[in-house]
Amino acid sequence: LKEFGVTVLSHTVAIGATRLPRAASWQQIIQVCDNLDSPLRCVDEATQNKMKAEIEDAMRAGDSRGGVFEVVAHGLPPGLGSHAQWDEKLDGRLAQAVMSIQAVKGVEIGAGVEAAAKPGSQVQDEIAYDAHRKRFTRSSNRAGGLEGGITNGEDLIVRGYLKPISTLHNPLSSVDLATKAPLKAGYERSDVCVVPAAGVAGEAMVAFILAGAFLEKFGGDSLEETRRNFQGFQQQLDNF
User: Fold this and answer.
1) Residue 198 · residue 184 · CB < 8 Å
2) pLDDT for res 152
3) Under the phi-then-psi rule, with left for phi > 0, alpha for psi from -120 to 50, and beta for the rest, what region is 127?
4) Which end of the chain is less packed: N or C, by CB atoms within 10 Å?
5) Which residues of the chain are modeled with pLDDT < 70?
């Protein structure tokens, strides 16, 4: 994907009840991903400190914390995916891929969760045309870069919602499989929160699906052939 100007990165949106109160810019996401000393990959330091406090509280209580990671794909061309078949829609394929990550119990694209409670006039992205770039644009990106299962040229935004991991230092009740008698669940060494690590897995899953959609769109038996087809498509957009 990088060969064609597409970059896929992730950052942490929420840990437990602490959530980033604003949208992150692409430049902020780049900076936090480049900072290998960032403990949670959150773009806002004050919010990150509150997230750390939540994790530390859970650690002291022998508990765990879940949260939300966000994967952003920047530089995508419009036209990837399909509206024609239910199993070819790109949003469905992305949701399946992110949902397959362990502990992910929900997937959101764009402003999906928030949009469900709003009127249509506050949800739709109005369309305009940038004559200088020769591209159609959107006044906002509530759709998360996907319309009708197809990329529209805006940043693609996918969020994964993780439950807290089930291995707890203060174990919960369970049942012995052999005797059927009640007992406390076994404890193995584990992390308290895996949201930042899951975000990296989310990057890989999103990139994998996008690479497949990219090859379906532009084809080719070699990188050179795919690049030529991609450049021809870009020229077609310029001439539209």
Assistant:
1) no
2) 95
3) beta
4) C
5) 189
Give the 3-state secondary structure of 5-27: CCEEEEEEEEECCEECCCCCCHH
Q: What is the pLDDT of residue 147?
A: 96
pTM: predicted TM-score of the whole model, two decimal places: 0.93
Structure tokens at 163: 């439950």
| Torsion (CA) 85, 71, 236, 136 in degrees, nearest 10 | 100
Q: What is the pLDDT of residue 190?
A: 74
Three-class DSSP category at 161: strand
pLDDT tens digits along 93-121: 999 999 999 999 999 999 999 999 999 99
What pLDDT does residue 34 have?
A: 96
* C-alpha pair distances (Å), 202 with each of 49, 146, 182: 23, 17, 37
Could you tell me the two tokens for 53?
Answer: 């406090």
Q: By the 8 A CB rule, do 138 and 125 touch?
A: yes
Distances, alpha carbon 214 to alpha carbons 44, 48, 97, in Å? 33, 35, 16
Compute the distance between CA of residue 56 and CA of residue 67 in angstroms, rounded to an integer.
Answer: 15
- Distance separating alpha carbons of residues 4 and 24, to the nearest angstrom: 24
Query: In the Cβ-directed half-sphere of 76, how many Cα atoms lie within 13 Å?
Result: 29
Structure tokens, 227: 């690049």
**Strand residues in the chain grouped as ranges (E):** 7-15, 18-19, 67-74, 104-109, 127-130, 135-138, 146-147, 150-151, 156-162, 173-175, 182-184
